[in-house]
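User: I've been trying to design a sequence by hand for this structure and keep getting stuck. Would you show me what you'd pick, starting by listing the structure so we're on the same page?

Assistant: Good idea, let's start from the same input. This is the structure you sent:
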């Protein structure tokens, strides 16, 4: 059975990782692949620099969900995730203040089946982006 690890970046509540992991666990057999959801801050430490954790996530074929679009727009960070074969889902927040807590929970839950399909069908590196009103679309 294929196994995937999805990391929730620390710019999102780590409770999302805990909750999604618990909700996904009984679905793994039915889905035909195993998906584990973890928190970047729990695994790599609070305040871990992107330059430190991105290669570690890539080494285990990990995938990241983040609001930090600078990973895509800053050349050295974009090259880092591409070089290390990391899959990334960018959540484009509805305002400069980011998502409200329950908005984020609802967005991730509503996109979860789509995220699982993307993870299962796309080999990293990849990048997908969504807004508060749109589903994930592949980025070039």
């Amino acid at each position: 059975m294929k196994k995937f690890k999805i990391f929730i970046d620390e710019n999102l509540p780590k409770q999302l990782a805990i909750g999604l992991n618990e909700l996904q666990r009984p679905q793994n057999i039915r889905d035909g692949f195993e998906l584990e959801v973890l928190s970047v801050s729990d695994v790599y430490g609070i305040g871990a620099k992107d330059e430190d954790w991105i290669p570690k996530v890539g080494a285990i074929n990990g995938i990241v969900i983040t609001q930090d679009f600078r990973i895509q727009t800053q050349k050295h960070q974009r090259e880092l995730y591409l070089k290390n074969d990391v899959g990334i889902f960018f959540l484009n927040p509805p305002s400069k203040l980011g998502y409200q807590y329950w908005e984020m929970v609802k967005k991730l839950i509503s996109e979860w089946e789509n995220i699982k399909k993307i993870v299962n069908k796309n080999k990293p590196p990849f990048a997908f982006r969504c807004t508060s009103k749109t589903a994930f679309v592949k980025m070039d």
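That's my pick for every position. To get oriented when you compare it with your attempt: The chain has a mean pLDDT of 95. Residues 2-138 form a domain with the Rossmann fold fold (CATH 3.40.50).
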